[in-house]
Amino acid sequence: MLRKRLQFKPYKFQMVQALKNADYSKRHDFCKSKQRRLEEEGFANRLVFSDEATFHLCGKVNRHNLRFWGSENPHALLDHVRDSPKINVFCAITNRHEFEPFFFAEKTVTGIVYADMLSEWLMPQLEEKVPDFVFQQDGAPPHWHNSVREYLNEHLPRRWIGRAGVNDLPFLLWTPRSPDLSQCDFFLWGYVKDTVFKPPLPLTLDELKQRICAAIDAITSDIATDLG
């Protein structure tokens, strides 16, 4: 009697967000609406993309939302450093402007901390430099905080893109379980971290901040225009 030989394969365990049936149409509608708007003259100049990132002094990166673009897979190896000092950074970009990074003093970015940064630091700059701007944020938990959405509804009705509730007033709804691939994810953070963490690595958080500021300041107008 012949026995069938089982073939086992080493599948890698990965945790991802499951898409619900209703999510597919919402994601499709978002893409169509965004594309239609981008075809309008001048709309791309109004879009402000934003995001936060964590920079570890040891050079550790967030493997979940960072993309590296190149002709070859770098296969980089980094020693793991437990409890490496870190800073949380916020940045906003348009196809014409890149704003100075904002360094959170807190180790964890909460909704209250994020709302204070928006109202006291970012919005005054946007109102000065980008006429009639449309502000984009992703679906991160701090962005969903009541104080954040209340502020955006009051000060930017129909001029913000993000995760929203039934009574909110967004320009476009950020898609459910989105991979959050905006210009910040697929260009900005990868470019900045590639520049910042070139050997020798920074030795202090102050030096790390200086490198981040220098990397963002080095983004030319031609690069910013290509993002649009």
Q: What count of domains describes the coordinates?
A: 1
Radius of gyration: 20 Å
- The CATH topology is Nucleotidyltransferase, domain 5
Tally of contiguous helical segments:
7
Q: Give the total of beta strands.
A: 6
Distance between the termini: 67 Å
The largest pleated sheet is described as:
6 strands, mixed
Helix content: 25-40%
The CATH homologous superfamily name equals: Ribonuclease H-like superfamily/Ribonuclease H
What is the 3D shape? globular
Q: H/E order of the elements?
A: HHEEEHEHEEHHH
Low-confidence stretches: none
Beta-strand residue percentage? 5-15%
* Main sheet strand line-up: 3-2-1-4-5-6
Broad structural category: alpha/beta
Mean pLDDT over the residues: 84
Q: From the coordinates shown, what is the CATH architecture? A: 2-Layer Sandwich
Q: At the first level of CATH, what is the class?
A: Alpha Beta
Quaternary arrangement of the chains shown?
A: single chain
Overall description:
The protein has a single domain, classed as Ribonuclease H-like superfamily/Ribonuclease H (Nucleotidyltransferase, domain 5, 2-Layer Sandwich). It is of the alpha/beta class. A 6-stranded mixed sheet has the order 3-2-1-4-5-6, with helices on both faces. It has helices at residues 21-38, 43-46, 111-129, 146-155, 183-196, 205-217, 221-227, and strands at residues 47-56, 86-93, 102-103, 134-136, 160-162, 172-173. The model has no long low-confidence stretch (mean pLDDT 84).
